[in-house]
Design a protein that fits this description.
two-stranded antiparallel ribbon; about 0% strand; mainly alpha; 2 strands
């Protein structure tokens, strides 16, 4: 089977340097944990707890040691897997470049014949050449392609096909091996969200040396990202985060939401959207659905944002354009007309609106005292706080915010039923 440029064009967009930087991040974290594990081990060996609770202390410190060691091993394996993948991607891009060069030469050969109109129309040169190969000698000459050029074209076609096939095989196998290795690295990381490791995590945080390391993190070499720069907003119309969410949106099999539709039925039929948004953001799916229910009265109004108000709210979750812009990686204070069109378009898409709302709630959570609370440990009161902040921002303690939180809490009960 022939491998065409369309089969491998995604390889051109792969960035092995970026993958290497991510690998470096994992290795950096492994180094940081390695420096911490010494303090944990020293504390376990050198401190003798003279009381009936001594056994518990020894147990907790042992768990802490296992946790730090397990995290380090997991990060090390992940870093190694990404480094190998980056090298393979570099090879795939090199081989693909050889295929692109052969394909361009083939295109130039065709462009010099009477079949030039075919490549000018955008038809793949390799597919055009497959048509040429079906012609007899006389028809080839009539098309302006003599026998010698046919042989040359066949070599170019074969070179492009072979290079594209090899590049595709290299990348696919590398990505499969990398994904398997990353899953293995994830499995090596202890589950510190509950069980015995819940105590271990507390023990690590309570170690003075660790607390000191956290305070001095800005000056620690292992906490410095190479070539770290201040956050840069996207200059063009399409941001990286928008592209990522749009790919997620297209990967989901979600029904479109039509004006007048029953929002509860829509949530029931599109549970995977709320599950995916929850995984992506760390926000409980029932909270996402509950906020949508609460904002439902304004679902189908004409977006005021189209009239030029960046403070206006749009879509199923009534998100302000400026807040959505910040979530998607744009500078809210300096939105270009093209960027603004992209943001408003995303907010008027029901699926993107839910994903953006989840991202916005994640940002709110990260900036609150709930930042370190795992998703499965968020209480109803925590969710009320997030809802109040979502609606009223810095005024989240007002009576208006409390009333909004009351409504969302009621809707959360409905959402849990709808989401099963």
């Amino acid at each position: 089977m022939t491998t065409y440029y369309d089969d491998v064009d995604y390889i051109e967009d792969l960035d092995p340097d970026s993958v290497e930087r991510n690998s470096g991040e994992f290795q950096r974290l492994n180094g940081l944990l390695g420096s911490v594990v010494l303090d944990v081990t020293r504390a376990r060996k050198n401190v003798v707890w003279e009381s009936e609770s001594g056994g518990k202390y020894d147990s907790r410190m042992s768990e802490a040691e296992q946790l730090v060691d397990g995290l380090g091993r997991g990060f090390a394996r992940a870093g190694a897997a990404l480094l190998d993948y980056a090298a393979d991607v570099q090879d795939a891009k090199r081989v693909m470049g050889e295929g692109v060069e052969a394909r361009n030469r083939l295109k130039a050969l065709i462009a010099s014949s009477k079949l030039a109109f075919m490549v000018n129309w955008g038809i793949d040169p390799m597919r055009v050449w497959e048509y040429v190969r079906s012609l007899n000698v006389v028809l080839c000459k009539m098309a302006g392609i003599p026998h010698g050029d046919v042989q040359y074209g066949n070599r170019l076609y074969h070179q492009a096909d072979t290079a594209f096939h090899d590049a595709l095989t290299t990348e696919k196998e590398a990505s499969r091996f990398c994904a398997d290795a990353l899953r293995g690295a994830r499995a090596a990381v202890p589950d510190f969200r509950g069980g015995n490791f819940a105590h271990a995590l507390w023990s690590i945080k309570s170690i003075p040396a660790f607390a000191t390391a956290v305070r001095n993190a800005a000056d620690h070499p292992y906490t410095q990202v190479p070539d770290e720069r201040p956050r840069q907003y996207t200059d063009g119309p399409i941001s990286d985060r928008y592209a990522e969410l749009w790919r997620l949106r297209n990967a989901l099999d979600v029904e479109l939401l039509h004006p007048g539709a029953d929002e509860h039925e829509w949530v029931k039929n599109n549970k995977q959207l709320f599950d995916a948004a929850a995984v992506e953001s760390g926000i409980p799916p029932e909270l996402l659905a509950a906020i949508m229910y609460r904002e439902g009265e304004d679902w189908h109004d004409i977006p005021r944002a189209l009239l030029g108000e960046d403070g206006a709210t749009v879509g199923e979750n009534q998100i302000q354009v400026r807040n959505a812009a910040a979530v998607l990686g744009y500078d809210p204070a300096n939105l270009t007309p093209d960027q603004r069109d992209v943001v408003v378009g995303a907010l008027t898409d029901p699926v993107m609106n839910v994903l953006i709302a989840a991202e916005f709630l994640e940002k709110i959570k990260a900036e609150s005292d709930l930042a370190d609370v795992p998703t499965d440990q968020l209480t109803v009161e925590d969710c009320r706080d997030l809802a109040a902040r979502y609606n009223c921002g810095d005024d989240w303690t007002t009576d208006k915010a409390k009333k909004y939180a009351d409504d969302v809490e009621l809707h959360m009960k409905e959402a849990k039923v709808d989401l099963g």
